[in-house]
Amino acid sequence: MFILQSQATIERAISKAKAMHPRVHVKTFGEYEVSGSKGNTYTVRCERRCNNLKTVDCTCEAGQRGNPCYHAAVAAAQHSYLAAQVDPLVALRYE
Ligand SMILES: [Zn+2]
């Protein structure tokens, strides 16, 4: 799990995501399945904790060590997009 403080936190992961073109499947708002490089799938959870920090949790090895991975980067991008689309109130909670 890592804390998404700014876009800079995941800048390198975003670059990698652009090269890898992972597939994102929305399970529910805040929970995403992202394809890995070996045809596997990782689960990424995006949530806002009560201490008001945006956290991203990925089940891959890097994610478990607290490193921003590209799965987390695409999931976070998807999450922000959905937050803006689905419900303005939900968006406000996550922004
Ligand atoms: Zn990951």
Q: Looking across the biggest beta sheet, what order are the strands in?
A: 1-5-4-3-2
Q: Look at the helices and sheets and give the structural class.
A: alpha+beta
- Give the H and E element order: EHEEEEHHH
Nearest-integer average pLDDT: 88
C-alpha end-to-end distance:
18 Å
User: Helicity range of the residues?
Assistant: 40-55%
Oligomer: single chain
Overall form: globular
* Portion in beta strands: 25-35%
What is the count of structural domains?
Answer: 1
Q: Tell me the Rg in angstroms.
A: 12 Å
The biggest beta sheet reads:
5 strands, antiparallel
Sequence stretches where pLDDT stays below 50 over 5 or more residues = none
What do you see in this structure?
The chain is an alpha+beta fold. The protein is 40% helix and 26% strand. The protein has a 5-stranded antiparallel beta sheet. The two termini are 18 Å apart. The site of zinc ion (ZN) has 8 residues, from helix 2 and helix 3. The site of zinc ion has 8 residues, from helix 2 and helix 3.
